[in-house]
Amino acid sequence: MSKIKLGATLFTFTMEYANGTYSFEECVKKAAECGAEGYEIVAAQMIPSYPYVSDAFLGLVNDCKEKYGIGPICYSASNDLGMRHDRNLTEDELLKAAITDIQSAHKLGCRVLRAQFVIPPSVLEKLAPYAELYDVKVGIEIHNPETPSTPYIQENLAVVKRTGSKHIGFIPDFGCFATKPNKPHWDKAIKAGASEEHLQIAAEMRYADEPLESVMTKMKELHASPAIFPAVQGMYGFVQFRKEWDKEGLKAIIPYTFEFHAKYHWMFENNKEASIPYEEILPVIQESDFEGYIMSEFENEAYISGYDMLKRHIKMEKEILGMSSC
């Protein structure tokens, strides 16, 4: 059986951090208050000296751990192909930057590093010795529109299996398991003038895997409000949804998984997520041999309190997993 701990990525408090409502310390404090046992830090967002970790920032992190009882578990790297104005970074440049991220994660005390899927399988393979040297597990994020079963993720899985390294693997994001339309996108479209009837038609076409062009054409034939088009684009982009989530793919990837991103876009007052079937996903993980953190990650597209949403989310997880709420 699994050994699950519940944490939160401080990205959950992006709005509050960006507008100055929360300091870094306040983000850690609020995460602890909501029930997080550890946290993930988006390094480029909250580490002033990124991609390096200064002694001063390390001291702040340690002080917060002493005060609030939780520390950094995962270092979320920002793998950026477009750092140059004239070309994308080469594989050697991506590798060098990723090694720096591993070193920074190690200094901060993180045992896991989340790498974005712009890191190609060839670079992931070259990273393995460095991950082993610093004892930091590098997980490629499986983010919508990818799923555990899509070709690109399978290419990475082949690398992981071929190397036999226990320090390279995956961090699946629950957003890729969505089975309903994104509520904030939907609500925003309606508020801007879109018809719910037209949105329903678009959603049914998405479920039927009809091409984006066909949906757009249909919306134009229906004289739909232009407000609907961003929502339709999202249905085919980073907030895709499917009739059936990739359950078998998840099962296959768990042995190579270091952490889960428990993505959520909206939590109802009854502690239910609007588009992602947590009541089906969490039991699959619980029944496996997974050991590690499920990190709550609020994608705050509604510009509301990340604190309230996180409290509801962790409470939901505990209810599904049968954990004590104390």
TrEMBL record:
Coiled-coil annotated spans: none
A Pfam family hit: AP_endonuc_2
InterPro entries reported in the protein's UniProt record: IolE/XylAMocC-like (IPR050312), Xyl_isomerase-like_sf (IPR036237), Xyl_isomerase-like_TIM-brl (IPR013022)
Name of protein: Xylose isomerase-like TIM barrel domain-containing protein
Annotated Xylose isomerase-like TIM barrel domain residues: 28-311
